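For practice. Supply one:
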Amino acid sequence: MLQRSDRPSQKNRSAPADPGVFRTLFAKLCRDRLSLVALVFLGLVTIVALIGPFLVGTDPNALNLRSALHPPSAEFWFGTDELGRDQFSRLISATHVTMIAATEAVVVSLVIGLPLGLVAGFRGGRVDAVLSRLNDALISVPALLLAITVVAVVGPGLTTSMFAIGLVFSPSIFRIVRGATMSVRSETYVEAAIAIGCRPLRIMVVHVLRNTFPPILVQVSLLFGIAMIAEANLSFLGLGVTPPQASWGSLLRGAFDNFYAAPYLMFAPGLAIALTVLAFSQLGDGLRTAVGDSKETR
């Protein structure tokens, strides 16, 4: 009986389950009205990005030179550009492109920064020192400069540009994951898992990773907004999407080229970028506050 009681049970072999952590964060997030409004707004933007292009009957790339630079009207809600293309349908199509571009940058940063941060925070020692020095070297590279260099070598395109942006974003994910991993690494359940002989990979994935999700969510929400600004900058400079494809940044470029003839072209893409980035920033602040409150209540 003593030998049986001394053996660790199956429940003790894994990290303490906390299935309600996300529900708790969501409940605390909903208490903040601004964060809730930001979340609803981003949900609407995501829906528009997913199904909007299928609901708009007008081809966003259809030319109609007779209606070039037509002001906003019942037929053309946001007016037309210099080639007579409907700006409303192009804005809906650009929403899809911009969201995909921002998602690509964030995914690349997670794929690179998350596993390296886990390994550095869990292993420590020389592994941590080497990875941290590489991270410091990469974080010193300006994002736009690296994106321009990649485009010059590989060629223009939104995918290559956002890959470069995601590469520059990865150090921020690395630092967040590394710090959270080092904090979780000293917990009792992690030390117990090491003592009973669990493999390091299993400990990092099952015991450590799921307990570092809250700070990662905060950083990801902030990176989405920064990625949208980066995409707008690259497309404005002609290093993002290739015509006739449109993004919010390329629409701003077109509005800039026709500013004196059709100043109304700048309002729709400008407001879309400003409101979406502001919503992601507010959501990140709300998540940060919710995560801080969760730590204080433990």
